[in-house]
Amino acid sequence: MSSNEIKQEIYNLVDLLNKYSYKYYVEDISEITDTQYDLLYKKLEKLEEDFPELILKNSPTQRVGDVTLSEFSKVRHTTPMLSLSNTFSKEELKDFDNRIKSTLNIKYLTYICELKIDGLAVSITYKNGDLVSAATRGDGTIGEDVTENIKTIFSIPKELNSKVDIEVRGEVYLPRKSFEILNKKRLENKEPVFANPRNAASGSIRQLDSKITAQRKLSAFIYSMVNSNESTQEDNLINSKKYGLPVNENYKICNNINEVIEYIEYWDKNKANLPYDIDGIVIKVNDVSYQEKLGYTQKSPKWATSFKFPEEELATKLLDIELSVGRTGVVTPVAILEPLTISGSTVSKATLHNKDVIEELEICIGDTVVVKKAGEIIPKITKVIKELRLPNSKPYKFPDYCPSCNSKLIWEKENPFVKCENFDCKEQTIKKIIHFASRDALNIEGLGDKQIISLYENKIISGIIDLYSLNKENLLNMDRMGEKSATNLLNSIENSKISSLDKVIYALGILNVGKKAANIIAKKYENLTNLKEAKLEELIELEDIGHITALSVIEFLSYKKNTDLIDNLIEIGINPTHLHQDKKENIFTNKVVVLTGKLTKLTRNESKSYLENFGAKVTSSVTSKTDYLICGEKTGSKLEKANELNIKILTEEDFINIMKG
Questions:
Q1: Of the candidates 93, 123, 502, 82, which has an alpha carbon nearest to the alpha carbon of residue 297?
Q2: Do residues 127 and 236 share a domain?
Q3: Of 216, 211, 199, 135, nearest in space to 168 by CA
Q4: Which domain holds residue 559?
């Protein structure tokens, strides 16, 4: 054969094998036998071995996985990967429908319903039609780079049918056939089997050795394109398929909420016939212009929700009830169960919520109880099978004293939660410190739960403010704490002083004050000094701050230990001012700023938030319109371009000094 004939033969084999793979992995259709497929595959392998210069990027032989990583690098999503709100009943769906139509002031609305694949969410980026990167959802803002592992999945094209630049979101899953084969092999190798396909998919995509990922035979479906110009969600799916991306064909356009409910009922009865697991249905407003009008909450789009299928209920034995003291002092009972497998997961704990639930169930240790998992992270006990109760069993009595500090517990009849109001309660204090140092609060890197517990138990710290008195000598006395780790942790603690006001308010751990409420309160009071003087009537008037949240803030401020903590934070320099564009200006006001490289003392979000508060426009590319380039470690082409254009360059240290004023 001539060179051109060989090239054409390779092209034909790659095209044919990829089509067979798409049919098999996406549509569950076997157009040829495994033996026939293997013969074609081996023929392609032999040609590529003889003519390696003719190997195509999208050849199925290039999906075997040949990269081993030491760790996954972090990736910041260009657009947050939000989660969906959940509904569990027809009434909740109708409320969702009424709320949207009321907001849009319309009578009729078209929805698109899609199967909710039980897998792992990923984001995949193509440049000029080539797959260049892929990341897990992570916390929605920062995920893990799993590009090499995604490249091993046959249903995901390494090269699109069009030379486009797009970012798509999808779900990686393990087909049931692949799951059965995987667990069979693990049993033969005397390895623990996976509880369900979802756990197996998650574990497979996060393998550092991509060869292992390739062996697992994962698949995927794409469900959205980021920042597309399409007018409907259906158009997004249609165009995704045109590009060669795997799209689940079982979606349906519904002209009203009753059609949505019919679709849900159909798949609730027929989901077992699918070659993969689904755990519900995703309902989206089809019209993209309506989606834009409806917008987002901090966690999820307002124009979409998921209906979670009711999960099975099973009976098991209640072995014990453990009590956990939270950072706000609320004591939560948790049922310890004889382990059982429910909806594919092994369950050994279930929530009992509060004192009222225990009394309503008339629960006894040793009872046979019914456990249900319906969307919660921890399942719940729904009933006690009293006919199986042991003779002489006595109902569980909620203790009068805190299991952590032995203080008298407080219970008000109008409030079902039992509280420990001892500010020096060990478990409560530790959890307050853990919350204060967490990523969403002051983000003290290197200070994990175990380190905080060790510092507390060794009497090095007794509360939040003691973190700022730590020295290297304190830290070096701890297990597994070397010179470098101690230095890094002390730097991280010092850098936590440069935080936005909303993060500091959230870090205080006020009951019912989440990130959104903290931001609203920060805008109102502008600094901690003013917050101390907050009034109930002021808080109630704030948009999205309800009566309960307002009362929680006032109650928090009524305790001297809490106001002392605020005073101590102010004294050590943690009293940021909430910045208003119309009130504050600095060198970044109305300037175009680009961030590049790895920032070691600040997160990208903190830096961007600070700049935008001063009216700066933060962009991703260096152009002639860029005013400042702020550089972290390991900068690349952006720094070179900034030098060429004579753009003002600031180091991270320069930036921090400007922030400090």
A1: 82
A2: yes
A3: 135
A4: 501-571
Q: Is 278 in the same domain as 199? A: yes
Residues 511 and 450 in one domain: no
Identify the pLDDT of residue 94.
94
pLDDT confidence of residue 633: 81
Phi first, then psi, for residue 565 (nearest 5°) are: -60, -45
In this structure, are residues 47 and 9 in contact, taking their beta carbons and an 8 Å threshold?
Answer: yes
What is the strand order of the sheet 628-631 is part of?
617-619, 592-596, 628-631, 648-651
Structure tokens at 82: 């939000």
Long-range contacts of 78-83 (CB under 8 A, 24+ apart): 78/167, 78/226, 78/620, 79/167, 79/226, 79/227, 80/140, 80/141, 81/121, 81/123, 81/137, 81/138, 81/140, 81/143, 81/169, 82/140, 82/296, 82/299, 82/300, 82/301, 83/140, 83/299, 83/300
Same domain, 266 and 283: yes
For the residues 114-132, what does the mean pLDDT come to?
94
CB atoms within 10 A of CB 226: 16
pLDDT tens digits for 548-567? 889 999 999 999 999 999 99
Q: Is 121 within 8 Å of 169 (Cβ atoms)?
A: yes
Q: Which residues are catalytic?
A: 116
Model pTM score: 0.53
Which tokens go with 612? 């935008």
d(CA 288, CA 286): 6
Task: Name the E strands within 373-414.
Answer: 380-384, 409-410
C-alpha 433/C-alpha 87 separation (Å) is 34
Given this model, what pLDDT does residue 174 score? 92
Token pair 């002092």: residue: 329
If DSSP codes are grouped into helix, strand and coil, which group holds residue 310?
A: coil
- Residue 508 exposed, middle or buried by CB count within 10 Å (0-12, 13-18, 19+): buried
Residues 151 and 262 both lie in one domain: yes
313-327 pLDDT, tens digit each: 788 999 999 999 988
pLDDT at 582: 46
Distance in angstroms (rounded) separating the CA atoms of residues 52 and 499: 54
What's CA 617's distance to the chain center, in Å?
A: 27
